[in-house]
Design goal:
- The structure holds 2 protein chains of 2 kinds.
- Chain A is mainly beta.
- Chain A contains no helices and 11 strands.
- In chain A, strands 2, 4, 5, 6, 9, 10 and 11 form a 7-stranded mixed β-sheet that branches.
- Chain B is mostly beta strands.
- Helix content of chain B is 0%, strand content 51%.
- Chain B contains no helices and 11 strands.
- In chain B, strands 2, 4, 5, 9, 10 and 11 form a 6-stranded mixed β-sheet that branches. A 5-stranded antiparallel β-sheet of chain B has the order 1-3-8-7-6, with no helix packed on it.
- The radius of gyration of chain B is 14 Å and the shape is globular.
- The chains are: A mainly beta, B mainly beta.
- Chains A and B meet through strand 4 and strand 5 of A and strand 5, strand 9 and strand 10 of B.
Chain lengths: 117, 113
């Protein structure tokens, strides 16, 4: 998991609370993304960014906001947490948003475990 | 939306056995990747295949991309306890899916000593 740092590692929220998951990379990657991982469902793309100031929605964007003010950082905001957002969240980055091949590897952070009660 | 169906979902075998994990879709992918994930960590890339019919080997692991670029397989020869983990396939369809990686549900492999 070279160079992708996620914080916090663990978080418990009450329904309706807001919070921000932080993601930073030090590899000067243009592409950054957020995934959530739920049992039996693999990883699902929430939002992604192809460069500073540019973001787009993935497969499951509802309930989440993102911004990309710098190349290094890509925070994920939960405005009003719901129990359905209990999950493990992964941030990932790569040099470019595709094609992903041996010259353009995606690196994942170690994950953030979020529980909403 | 491109879907990747991965099978089996669970695999429990003895050390020394061979196994194959499958990743299938009705969509064409411009590239397909296989990841391995350990508990408490993020996925780590094992291989990327980009050409239909391509076969890549990584020690005891053999990866194949289908001729039509709709399916892939991961074959492990003489599995070892250290191979235990979650294996994920992921694909990008290119075009309007630029920037989007679709994952299969994953295969949890347990290799018993």
């Amino acid at each position: 998991n070279a160079g992708v740092t996620q914080t916090p590692k663990f978080q418990v929220l009450k329904t309706g609370q807001s919070m921000t998951l932080q993601c930073a990379q030090d590899m000067n990657h243009e592409y950054m993304s957020w995934y959530r991982q739920d049992p039996g469902m693999g990883l699902r793309l929430i939002h992604y960014s192809v460069g500073a100031g540019i973001t787009d929605q993935g497969e499951v964007p509802n309930g989440y906001n993102v911004s990309r003010s710098t190349t290094e950082d890509f925070p994920l905001r939960l405005l009003s947490a719901a129990p359905s957002q209990t999950s493990v969240y992964f941030c990932a980055s790569s040099y470019s948003p595709g094609p992903w091949d041996s010259g353009n590897t995606i690196y994942f952070g170690e994950g953030s475990w979020l529980t909403v009660v | 939306t491109q879907l990747l169906e991965q099978s089996p979902q669970f695999l429990s075998i003895q050390e020394g056995e061979n196994l194959t994990v499958y990743c299938n879709s009705s969509s064409v992918f411009s590239s397909l990747q296989w990841y391995r994930q350990e508990p408490g960590e993020g996925p780590v890339l094992l291989v990327t295949v980009v050409t239909g019919g391509e076969v890549k080997k990584l020690k005891r692991l053999t990866f194949q991309f289908g001729d039509a670029r709709k399916d892939s397989s991961l074959h492990i020869t003489a599995a070892q306890p250290g191979d235990t983990g979650l294996y994920l396939c992921a694909g990008n369809a290119g075009g309007t899916s630029y920037g989007k990686l679709t994952f299969g549900q994953g295969t949890i492999l347990t290799v018993h000593p």
